[in-house]
Amino acid sequence: MNIFYEEDGAFKVGSILTDNTTSLQVESTHGKRSKIKAANVLLRFAQPGLTEFMTQAENLASDIDVEFLWECSPPEDFGFDALATEYFGHAPSPVEAASALIRLHSSPMHFYKKGKGHYKAAPPEALKAALASAEKKRIQAALQARYTDELITFALPPEFADKLQPLLYKPDRNTLEVKALEAACAATHLSAAHLLQRCGAIPSTQAYHLQRFLFENFPHGTGFPDVAVEEHPELPLAEDTAFSIDDATTTEIDDAFSVRQLANGNWRIGVHIAAPTLGVAPGTQGDAIAAQRLSTVYMPGDKITMLPDSVVQAFTLDADKVCPSLSLYLEVDAATLAVINTESRIERIHISANLRHDTLEPLFNEETIAAGKLDYLFATELKLLWEVAQKLEAVRGKSGENNMQQVDYNFYVENDRISISSRQRGSPIDKVVAELMIFVNSEWGKLLAAHDVAGIYRTQNNGKVKMSTVPGPHQGLGVAQYLWSSSPLRRYVDFINQRQIISLLNGEAPVYTQNDTALFTVMRDFDTAYTLYNDFQRNMERYWCLRWLLQENVKQVEALVLRENLVRLVNIPLVGRVHSLPETQPNTRVVLEIGEIDLLDLNFNARFISVVEVVESCQS
Question: Taking Cα atoms as reference points, which of 204, 221, 142 lies closest to residue 179?
Fold first, then answer.
């Protein structure tokens, strides 16, 4: 005698070896012996044999019309044998009964299991909903399969066209598109970005990186609403005119300088800072925008300004304009060049010129100064500022520290072509601007602290720089206190500090009080945003370095070993690892062969060729 029984959710057959009251010992078609409960037995049969029985039952089950079976079923619970009798119209054979049970069990949408061999027909509405859901899943599975097949052949499904940014930058793994993309990536052994690039979905690698940054940080776009510049009191006009010194691409001109010899023979040097806070009051729309952006975002060839263009244009220190200014005047002893006293004013200043690095540096440098060449615009003033800057540097105890041959790089993008130029840090242009800005930021920090007016300071102790509302020494700069206040068009911290300085000079209550929670919020948010923006700028500079290698068809380069297999290229600020580099001392120059360049991952392959020379001096 044979039995048909259920075990672990599956139907099985076996030959009875021992038949006890509550259990049976059976042997399967493969000869395996097992003990089963008598309650699990659904049918007993003598013919056909075990293998034929299951084959016939499964074949017959596949022919049963499940919809007709459902229509034949009673509304109440029923046993499978009773429904088999109804369906076949006669007392079913063991094979027929088993086939009915197999069909019932395989149709959970139509029949709910109520126990071994017992079922209940699904209500019509429930069945309708379940079938609709199953059909939806079938369609989705077919759609997903089509997406995957198209992606594997590097064809972009039309449905992906308006979903590319979330697919690239914030994929939702519950969506069909992402599931299909992941399957295609697994099949092609490509990342999502590289696969979509092969499909033509990333025509611009530069846009790929920019759009990622915008997607994550400017989800509503980089445009501005219409922001009106508020009226501010008429300010006195300074008797001097000023000039600025900036990079050729600078449009947010924050600072300018003036020089006048006083009747007593001393020099008066003016440092004039743009004053946008005069036209953007706290709590206004313009202020909210600046507080949200916190800083201008820079990248080679482009930028995202902190302030709306209407505000920038109203307050940038453009040539041939009379501009509102927060000014610090230094009286400098004619003989010693020591600063005798200072005075801060809120005024208007005429900007006579915007000097640019690229045209000024060939004229104003250490060689031309030593040669006494003063045949260019503002030559006398610049020479004096250079001498004063050296004095200020010495007072800080930092004289000579810029002789480490550090190099700054400038990136210029025009018509999708990149040019990268270098300039030695510590040049007269650098030193003039840097020393006067350090002096201004230190003096205004001292001014706020002396009058117990809150400000946001930058302090440095044991090499660690942090922001604080409490004034403290900045050891790296060698000053007793230091705050950012000289770039209010580009940094919200400077913008906040300028408000505090202006309120103090006007004899008004400061906008922000000591321990004001708004200051702590600004510090926290600014620090996060500034770090993120700087990381983005470095990534884009890395991108354009790689583009430069491709553009110039560079095959071999010299590089400086930094440590282990980490190198920095000599002519551009590109750092990478060279796995073929043998054990080499730091500061060794090597020749590399440039291999594959990946503009999506921002990586490059390089192969070590030879050693050039060992540099004994400090790493540049």
Answer: 142
DSSP secondary structure of 437-483 = HHHHHHHHHHHHHHTT----EEEEETTEEEEESS---BTTTTBS--B
Positive or negative CA dihedral for 606, 607, 613, 615?
A: positive
pLDDT (0 to 100) of residue 401: 58
Q: Which two tokens stand for residue 217?
A: 């940080």
Q: What local confidence, expressed as pLDDT, does residue 619 receive?
A: 42
pLDDT in tens, 397-422: 877 655 446 788 889 998 899 999 88
What confidence tens digit (pLDDT) does each residue in 456-483 have?
A: 999 998 888 899 999 999 998 999 999 9
* Omega before residue 48 within 30° of 0, cis: yes
The first and second tokens of residue 189, run together, are: 């052994």
The structure's pTM equals 0.82
Q: What's the longest Cα–Cα distance across the chain?
A: 128
In contact, 253 and 317? CB cutoff 8 Å: yes
- Specify whether the CB–CB gap between 111 and 70 falls below 8 A: yes
Would strands 237-246 and 339-356 be described as parallel, antiparallel, or unpaired?
Answer: parallel
Structure tokens of 75? 């509304």
DSSP per-residue letters across 240-267: EEEEEEE-TT--S--EEEEEEE-TTS-E
- Rounded CA separation 180/167 (Å): 11
242: nearest Cα among 321, 332, 312: 321
Helix axes 517-551, 492-505, angle to 10 degrees: 140
